[in-house]
Write a structure and sequence with these properties.
This protein is an alpha+beta fold. It is 49% helix and 17% strand. The chain has a 3-stranded antiparallel beta sheet with strand order 1-2-3, covered by helices on one side. Helix 1 crosses helix 2, helix 2 runs parallel beside helix 5 and helix 3 runs antiparallel to helix 5.
Length: 143
């Protein structure tokens, strides 16, 4: 993907993030994620019904990379089964860690394919994805 298009997608998702604003609905699983090395703090709410991610909401204070990554993650994961979400998550983590991954399933999240060149920004891109990982691990432990 061309660098200008990447910047455009990141900027659009930062300026107009998807599903920003919490519902404080008890049917959502909640997790708070913060990055000790900067100001990023993101609260996620995830609604899961019949093993499908029905909705993800977020709020908090975060940089452009963290906010846009959260927005893109939401768009990529809503409507996916928990197994599909786990596969997408693992591929995103592999991409960030410069390991083999499937570009196709990441959709717009592919815009972070070279974030590893800027190690200080990796945590920003990963913060909300780690939140989803935490939720998925919690659900697995309950099974």
């Amino acid at each position: 993907m061309d660098n200008n298009l990447k910047r455009e997608i990141i900027l659009e998702n930062y300026q107009n993030p998807k599903n920003k604003g919490l519902l404080n609905d008890d049917s959502y699983i909640k997790v708070n994620m913060n990055n000790e090395s900067c100001i990023d703090e993101v609260n996620l709410e995830v609604k899961i019904e019949n093993n499908i991610i029905k909705d993800i909401r977020f709020d908090g204070e975060a940089c452009a990379i963290s906010t846009s990554s959260t927005s893109i993650m939401i768009e990529v994961l809503i409507g996916k089964t928990l197994n599909e979400a786990e596969t997408i998550l693992q591929n995103f983590l592999n991409m960030i860690d410069e390991k083999p991954y499937d570009k196709e399933i990441l959709k717009e999240a592919i815009v972070y394919d070279d974030i590893s060149k800027n190690p200080s920004r990796k945590k920003c891109a990963l913060l909300s994805w780690w939140g989803i990982e935490k939720i998925l691990n919690k659900l697995k432990a309950l099974d």
